[in-house]
Write a structure and sequence with these properties.
By secondary structure, the chain is α+β, with helices and mostly antiparallel strands. It is 62% helix and 11% strand. α3 packs antiparallel against α4 and α11 packs across α12.
């Protein structure tokens, strides 16, 4: 029994380890988008629905063509005063066809084809929304991961400050209150790390859902601040947006439906032809007789249908008005979507510039405050305030960069760039992910991480060892000249305070 339990436990451990090993797949954005186009279940369902509508059109117009059927009949009757019975039967072919003498067939075929095109345009609209949602989620996940790293660095920084405070307390250089404050800061940083990790994991779950259940994770790569690369044109948006195309086709279809409904009292002409191939006995009453053929025409002239045509036309007329109003509403919605996305981009790009300057100032203030505190010249409350300020503006900077990516995605969606044209040609936003030719210039050259200093000089490395938290997000390590400037600033502060 024990062996069984041990074997079961080992199997469970191996399964868990295997599951963890294959838990996620690292992908680039291009690979992820291809995965969605291939494996998203909602996308597959939409494709099959459009295909069903296609075959529905082919099936419906089949009633306009001639129909051919084999006919067979048999009967039996008993003779009067005789035990034997009388049997008879026949086999033949029948051809029937309703001749279109009022033009209904062409109208019906056109409106059904337009119905299919409306369905295809609605699918393209869903595709436009799906891919834009996926890209928004992707960039949100990338920036959320950077936020996790930022919060972890803040936690490391505060843990180190708490260690320094504990050492000072043991040397009776600071009061007990400083320990309580530094410990509270560590607890708060731990909570912020957990919150950031939860947000990131939720976004990964959304990425997995959009990719058809495949656990994916954005590949590690250099992050860049996006630059504006979308061609904005309201008239082109009206031409290429699939939801506007769907509304435009719906108006055209509604007008055809009205014309078709108005022919409700049109005359009909039916043609029929029949040939009897076999009958037994030959004297049976089958029409036509064995080996003979017959044909006929039947004309029907409707006079009154209980006002069905009259009210059907009124219904169709109101459907036209509704479709036209929907089209006008979508045109205004397009104008609004473009304006909102442009405003969001302008706000996010301006915020990114402001927050970057604030991060640089907050980082400088934090390092000076840490040097003063480590040398016993600064108050702990000043250090805490500097840490809080730096963490806050760094988080806001990440949020501004994320908003820039989201605004660009919203603008591409407003232009209908994530869906194919009416002729099936993919638009620019999707060609970037392997559908068609690659498009360059997606992002600019500005990096989230400032590359001004690629490596530290020995003097800067020595200075960094005395400055906890120097390797924080968005801030390069200090060069020897910058360290000298900081020391000069400290000397000036000491002189002002009369300290040797």
């Amino acid at each position: 029994m024990k062996k069984r339990l041990v074997g079961l436990s080992l199997s469970l451990v191996l399964l868990i380890c295997a599951g963890e090993a294959a838990a996620s797949v690292s992908m680039t954005l291009e690979q992820y988008m291809r995965e969605i186009l291939l494996n998203n279940h909602a996308l597959r369902a939409g494709v099959k629905s459009v295909e069903a509508d296609y075959y529905s059109v082919l099936s419906a117009v089949g009633t306009q063509r001639p129909a051919l059927a084999a006919t067979a009949g048999a009967n039996w009757a008993s003779h009067q005063g005789n035990d034997s019975g009388y049997t008879a039967g026949h086999l033949g072919l029948a051809l029937t066809h309703r001749i279109d003498i009022s033009g209904r067939y062409s109208l019906d075929e056109r409106q059904r084809i337009l119905g299919y095109e409306v369905s295809r345009a609605k699918f393209d609209a869903n595709l436009n929304t799906l891919i834009s949602t996926a890209e928004q989620t992707w960039w949100s996940a990338v920036l959320a991961r950077e936020n996790v790293r930022l919060q972890q660095e803040v936690l490391t920084q505060r843990s180190e400050n708490h260690r320094v405070t504990m050492e000072k307390y043991r040397q009776e250089l600071v009061p007990r209150l400083d320990i309580v404050r530094s410990e509270a800061q560590v607890v708060q940083a731990e909570s912020q790390v957990k919150e950031a990790e939860t947000t990131y994991q939720n976004l990964l779950a959304s990425l997995s859902f959009l990719a058809g259940g495949l656990d994916v994770e954005p590949e590690e790569q250099e992050l860049k601040v996006p630059e504006f690369d979308v061609k904005v044109n309201y008239d082109e948006a009206l031409e290429f947006r699939p939801d506007v195309r769907s509304a435009r086709l719906s108006v055209e279809r509604a007008k055809l439906v009205k014309k078709l409904t108005a022919k409700g009292l049109s005359p009909t002409l039916d043609f029929s032809a029949q040939w009897t191939a076999w009958s037994d006995p030959e004297t049976t009453n089958s029409v036509p007789k064995k080996g003979e053929a017959a044909a006929g025409l039947s004309l029907k002239l409707p006079i009154f249908d209980g006002h069905q045509t009259k009210y059907g036309v009124l219904n169709a007329d109101r459907m036209i008005q509704a479709a036209e109003s929907t089209l006008e509403s979508l045109k205004e919605q397009t104008r609004r979507d473009i304006a909102v996305a442009l405003n969001n981009w302008k706000n996010a790009s301006a915020t990114e510039v402001d927050r970057k300057r604030q991060v640089e100032r907050a980082e400088e203030e934090l390092h000076i405050t840490e040097l003063m505190y480590s040398e016993g010249m600064g108050a702990q409350i000043d250090l805490i305030n500097a840490q809080v300020s730096y963490r806050s503006v760094s988080t806001e900077y990440l949020a501004a960069v994320r908003d820039m990516y989201v605004a660009l995605v919203e603008l591409r969606q407003a232009m209908g760039d994530y869906a194919p044209d009416e002729d099936g040609t993919w638009r620019e936003a999707v060609t970037r992910y392997g559908k068609g030719n690659d498009v360059l210039g997606e992002v600019g050259l500005k990096s989230l991480r400032d590359p001004r200093v690629q490596r530290m000089e020995p003097a800067a490395a020595e200075a960094e060892s005395a400055v906890p938290g120097a390797k924080t997000f968005g801030v390069p390590p200090k060069s020897a000249e910058e360290v000298a400037e900081i020391k000069a600033s400290l000397q000036k502060i000491y002189q002002e305070r009369g300290i040797e």
